[in-house]
Fold this protein.
Amino acid sequence: MDDQASAPRPTLAAVAAQAGVSVSTASLVFSGRGPVSDATRERVLAAATALDYAGPDPTARSLRRGRSGVIGVVTEDSLADTFRDPMNLALLDGIGEGLGDERLGLLVIPRVSDPGTELAAAPMDAAILLGCSTDVAPSVAALRRRRVPVVAIEAVPMDDVIAIDLDNRDASRRGAEHLAQLGHRRVAVVTLPLDAARTRGEVTPARMATSAAHTTLERLGGVREVLPDAVAFSASGSTVDEGARIARLLLDVPAGERPTAIVAQSDLLAVGVLRVADELGIAVPAELSVIGFDGVRLEGAIDGVLTTLVQPAIEKGRLAAEAVLAALAGRAGTPVLLHSELRIGTTTGPAPAS
Amino acid sequence: MDDQASAPRPTLAAVAAQAGVSVSTASLVFSGRGPVSDATRERVLAAATALDYAGPDPTARSLRRGRSGVIGVVTEDSLADTFRDPMNLALLDGIGEGLGDERLGLLVIPRVSDPGTELAAAPMDAAILLGCSTDVAPSVAALRRRRVPVVAIEAVPMDDVIAIDLDNRDASRRGAEHLAQLGHRRVAVVTLPLDAARTRGEVTPARMATSAAHTTLERLGGVREVLPDAVAFSASGSTVDEGARIARLLLDVPAGERPTAIVAQSDLLAVGVLRVADELGIAVPAELSVIGFDGVRLEGAIDGVLTTLVQPAIEKGRLAAEAVLAALAGRAGTPVLLHSELRIGTTTGPAPAS
DNA sequence: CCGAGATGTCGAATCGATTCGATCGAATCG
DNA sequence: CGATTCGATCGAATCGATTCGACATCTCGG
């Protein structure tokens, strides 16, 4: 019962003493980076077992080695919301794949409030910034001061940040062209969050000017290259509920004022839009075309196939992990630009004759 | 560019020197746990800014303080699969809630292969064992040696482990009674993994005897208290695909040999079963009743409402977090037993007349 | 005007390991 | 057989902070 309290955790020094060797030799046994005779090794290991020694203290080891074996994964949402987005899960899949058998733990850090505080407090050897739709500059600054290599997924290009980027603008443009070719002229966009406060509402030029949400702006810009007049409303997150919320604003109006197509900046948002269309009895794609972004698996959440821009999500995660490993090895990480592909499903069709 | 390489990261000592104070005083400024005059404080902070000092090194601080500010979350599956289970997401929600504003990071550690190795290498102040369906003894032993308090969710009771437990056996029994009352006699069970290897296949007495999968065995035991002859097949994980896989074994047989009801040990498994029933044209609940476990939100994955045992998942996470905080504060954590409730949905009905 | 108490600052020990260079005996080689 | 090398071991410095006890200064009551 009170063993735990009474017996202090044994240290390497205690093990060395018990085995009758010096601490340095004992250390060699556990780290395996020096020549040790078999006899000595066994004596040390026996002593460790006798004392119930659990191996070198990770904290002390980290301090001395200058490595903690931990990769920080910095997310935008709350912990659980982060993992509710299949996009992030795919990224995680890729990261796990890319990290391979390196023994690195993932420390998940929600960047919800006061950026920097928590970021600066946790030990980590490198950081991956996940889905940087809002302003990441403060976080990056905090990490840079700590000399922590940063890999950012879809962030605005910055010094000392290895970018794993996506052709957001070009892809969105292709999506918009698809709609334009189908005759759509009245198109609305449901965007990802536009600022750190995740304000919900119409995207005005003023808001765009002060926004640092790279991905959001790029995707919107791509659409407006083709459809300059497309109105846009920002969601407060990439969730089905948010998509539905914005969709109600856009669709619950007299039929004449309704857009004939909605571009959602994520598949989850698109599902929300489809759900509301269904509620309101608006036929898709006869009366309304919907296009998403990401190309994640939607597990039977919708009937048919969502027209969307499929991005190589797992690949993205894998490349991020590889960039981290490169940075850890002292090699310069290579920035990457990935490409999305338009998948035409059953949610887009010719614009209804007006 | 090469600033990063050339200029070594400044230390507290450098800041102290620059400010003309001792290291101890500088430390006091950052940790805020001693009296420092305003003038001194400002001088130190100015020096820190001048040197671009990012604050005390987390690793060094952890070593000295004996606290790393990190909670280990030990999972059974791969990283991404863990978070694909809505059950675990709900737990995470609860953990986040229970941790509140304590500045604690969550280190996610998949306990896939060689238990203990990674576990022992990462710094953490406490560990939460998530969904312990398979054998956790080795992990617990490794953590205990390191004097890391362990909170286990639904694990077999062990010394020095704070258990957050669920009435698995009783709940399953109530589910089985519901089926029995409806006249079902030929009932099959799709179980969670039965062993660390996650072997898929029929659950034989021999396998049960060597299994340490607490949750799995309890839930199965509960069913067999009512329906002793229920056959059982173990899945290799709590996923829709696994549920479907086992369901095909059970349902793709001549109609006379088919069970009239299937008890799935998780909602995800149940969804897999429903999917296969649909594929094979078996009407639910007219020809087949299906019951799940967990009561998680299934986001339109099925038509109707799943009959299932709803457990207080968020509460479970919250209690686990509170137990962790208690342990960290030196207080003894209180073991908890939570209760599930049978929710009767549209997937169970009277047994078909044979 | 002196001693008690409060306040601010400092030096030194400490947390638990890793690692560099030195040492020493044994084996190898010419 | 002496010089050299190699393998095994050890001592001591180091990683970057925190914290305890000591010390100096200042305030205030008596």
Remarks:
- Residues 21-25, 28, 34-37, 40, 60, 62-66 of chain B lie near DNA strand C (CB under 10 Å from a C1').
